[in-house]
Design goal:
- With about 150 residues, this protein is an alpha/beta fold.
- The termini are far apart.
- The chain has a five-stranded parallel sheet, with helices on both faces.
- α1 crosses α5 and α4 runs parallel beside α5.
- It contains six helices and five strands, in the order βαβαβαβαβαα.
- The chain binds ribulose-5-phosphate.
- Ribulose-5-phosphate (5RP) binds next to α3.
């Protein structure tokens, strides 16, 4: 069974706990990088470690949470090797895997209902990367990230 890393700030804490319980019931291994309460914190301190766990191969996939998910996606995408997609509905989650092969997704706890969030997570986990033209595209992004190809 896959290992999934989790990271959140205070605004995503409740949703992180809900998703954690949902995934544990399904048998996933969880690495929880916190935060562990609704006390205000800075998302970079929790999201970047969760993203690094994916980049370093300690986790297969990662989930990051915040109020909107925007800053969390930005932070996760600073980690080399991470493709983090902000997901706000089931369709965006499906495409995050089928087209982008996102290895991390970001969710906004103030943006989606609990039911929507669980449906998003399940859709992303169940979907498959299509490859083909999408592989070529994510490879170009990866080549830029590793400095092998300038886009100018
Ligand atoms: O979504 C976020 C970043 O994109 C944060 O969760 C949000 O900015 C936290 O806001 P506040 O400190 O007002 O609770």
């Amino acid at each position: 069974m896959k290992t999934i890393s989790l990271g959140t700030d205070h605004a995503g804490y409740q949703l992180k706990e809900l998703v954690k319980s949902h995934l544990e019931k399904k048998g996933y291994q969880i690495i929880d990088f916190g935060t562990s309460s609704e006390e205000a914190v800075d998302y970079a301190d929790f999201v970047i470690p969760a993203a690094e766990a994916v980049a370093h191969g300690e986790a297969d996939l990662g989930l990051v949470f915040g109020g909107s998910g925007n800053g969390e996606a930005i932070a996760a995408n600073k980690v080399r090797g991470v493709r983090c997609a902000l997901c706000w509905n089931v369709q965006s989650a499906l495409l995050a895997k089928e087209h982008n092969n996102a290895n991390v997704i970001a969710l906004g706890g103030r943006m989606v209902s609990d039911a929507e969030a669980l449906a998003i997570v399940d859709q992303w986990l169940e979907a498959s990367f299509e490859g083909g033209r999408h592989l070529r595209r994510i490879q170009k992004v990866g080549d830029y990230e590793t400095g092998r190809a300038s886009r100018r």
